[in-house]
Amino acid sequence: MSLSDTFKGLTKSAHAVSGLGERIGDLPRVSRWSLIALFIFSLYLMPWWPEVPVLGWLVDTPGTSFEGVITDKVVIYVLVALGLNVVVGLAGLLDLGYVGFYAIGAYVVGILSSQHANLPWLVCVPIAVIVSMIAGVILGTPTLRLRGDYLAIVTLGFGEIIRISANNADWLGGSRGISKIAKPPNIGPLKFGVLDAKPYFFLGLTVIIITVFFLRRLENSRVGRAWNAVREDEDAAELMGVPTFKFKLWAFAIGAAIGGLAGTLYAGKVRFINPSNFPLQLSILFIAAVVLGGTGNMWGAVIGGAVVGWMPERFRGFADKRVFVFGVALVLVMVFRPQGLIPRKIRKERWLANWKQRESEGGEVARG
Amino acid sequence: MKSLATPSTPTRSIYRTFWDLTVTGIALGAIYALVALGYTLVYGVLRLINFAHSEIFMVGTFATLITATNFLGIPLLEAGNYPYRTGFTLVAILLACIVGGMVVSGAGAVLLERVAYRPLRGSGEHVGAVVLAFASAFTASLVFTETTRTNVIIGLIGTAPLAVLYLRIFRRGRQAPRLAFLISAIGASTAIAEAVAIWSPRDREQYQTPRVLEKKVLFEFLGTEVRIDYVLVIVGALLMMTALVLFVNRTRLGRGVRAVAQDVETAKILGVNVDFVILITFLLGGVMAGAAAMMFTLVYDQTRFNIGFLLGVKSFTAAVLGGIGNLRGALLGGLVLGLGENYGAAIFGGQWKDVIAFVLLLVVLMFRPTGILGESLAKARV
Question: A335 and B124 in contact by Cβ < 8 A?
Answer without folding.
Answer: yes
